[in-house]
Amino acid sequence: MARTESTGSTWRYRWAQRQNVRRVSTYRGAETAWRRRDDELRRLRALAADFEGSAAAGAGLPLELVDDEVVLWALPAAQLVEVRHTTVLPAPDLTVAASAAPLRPRRPDGVRVTDAGMAVITSRRLVLLGGRGRRDWAYGRMTGLAHDPAAPVTLIQVLDRRRASGLLLPTDAAADFRFKLTLAFADAIEQRAAVLAQLDELIAEHDQLKPFRPAVATPAQARLSSFVPGGRRTIAVAAGIALLVPAALFDSNPSDPTGGAEVAAAATPGSPPGAPPALLRPAVPAPARTTAPKRTSAPRPSSTATTGPRCGAPENPLGYDFCGGTRIRKPAAEVCDWFDCVPQFWAGRGYLVQCRDGSVSLTGGRAGACADHRGVRRTISQ
């Protein structure tokens, strides 16, 4: 029986099954990462709203509290570090953004450990109750505060000390320590509301990045290029080889071991009859006319580039993302293999955009773009 190319073809069903498995796997991975970050932001928001201390929390600590001072948090394992050289730290701020990379349990260069003990955050100061004594950092005297982005070290500058000092903490406790120190400092300068507003903004921005459940791929969406391993690239390479091989066979004559040198010698005026081809000098071509070099545009990025953040876009080998850049008016033919295209996608006359229901349309910049899909959400760029 002859093979048909209808939607009932077996290869089309296999293509749809592979696409659906890949889409679901990609979606679940993105959703897990998104939900982990969402849970962390909401945990910090709840902690910031209910972060309170009490004088009873300091009972049993060898620390004398002043009037209306309360203990907010205590960590029994901390090390006192001091900077070997004079440095200037940035002014304290209320940033609560999470570190981009996980912290490593190491001590930065130029920092030495001088004591160890318990770190205590109160409503007025940060205190280390060490084996060699007590070290205080009063919030009202802080002039600089810096958290190392790669190590669990926090350095502080105060008015009455020339060199910066701080704490080296366990990696699993560093994030909570930094956040609670920020809350305590914000309370001291009466700016708790600014921290809450910042967390609300981060949660709202993160909600916009929630991945959409992908649409189900159907056999009717399969292209003929999907039937060939490698798709359109394999077809293009095969076509190029098909054109080059006949040309190479035409230029070469396997029955002539001299490669046509004798014929060229016979056609050269003044050449001695019977002279071997090796003794004949090849004709020197006339010098080519020099022309100004053509101006070429900058090379376009490769369609297989996948490096860099995609800002919530699904993983794809086309280099398309939501980060903002060059608008895409002529998308790659396989764009619907990686994004959920709207019906009649190729009838669009605009640039590539994502609609609010998660589908992708080619009507960006035109009136009524994504009209049947709750409007335009954001632009897809390259």
Summarize the structure in words:
The structure is a single chain. With 382 residues, the protein is an alpha+beta fold. Helix content is 28%, strand content 18%. It has helices at residues 10-50, 171-188, 192-208, 232-251, 261-266, 335-338; strands at residues 71-83, 111-122, 125-130, 133-138, 142-147, 153-158, 165-168, 351-355, 360-364, 376-379. The strands form two sheets. A seven-stranded antiparallel beta sheet has the order 4-3-2-1-7-6-5. A three-stranded antiparallel beta sheet has the order 9-8-10, with no helix packed on it. Helix 1 packs antiparallel against helix 3. It starts with 9 loop residues before the first helix and ends with a strand. Residues 277-310 have a biased composition (Low complexity).
Quick summary:
With about 375 residues, this protein is an alpha+beta fold.
Number of helices, counting only DSSP H or I runs of 4 residues or more:
6
Portion of residues in beta strands equals: 15-25%
Low-confidence stretches: 1-6, 254-307
Derived structural class: alpha+beta
Number of strands: 10
Mean pLDDT: 79
* Main sheet makeup: 7 strands, antiparallel
CATH topological fold name of the domain at 67-169: PH-domain like
Order of helices and strands: HEEEEEEEHHHHHEEE
Percentage of residues assigned to helices: 25-40%
Distance between the termini: 45 Å
Could you name the CATH class of the domain at 67-169? Mainly Beta
Label the CATH architecture of the domain at 67-169.
Roll
Oligomerization category of the chains in this entry: single chain
Q: Determine Rg (CA atoms, Å).
A: 35 Å
What is the molecular shape?
elongated
Largest sheet, order of strands side by side?
4-3-2-1-7-6-5
Region (Disordered): 256-313
Biased composition (Low complexity): 277-310
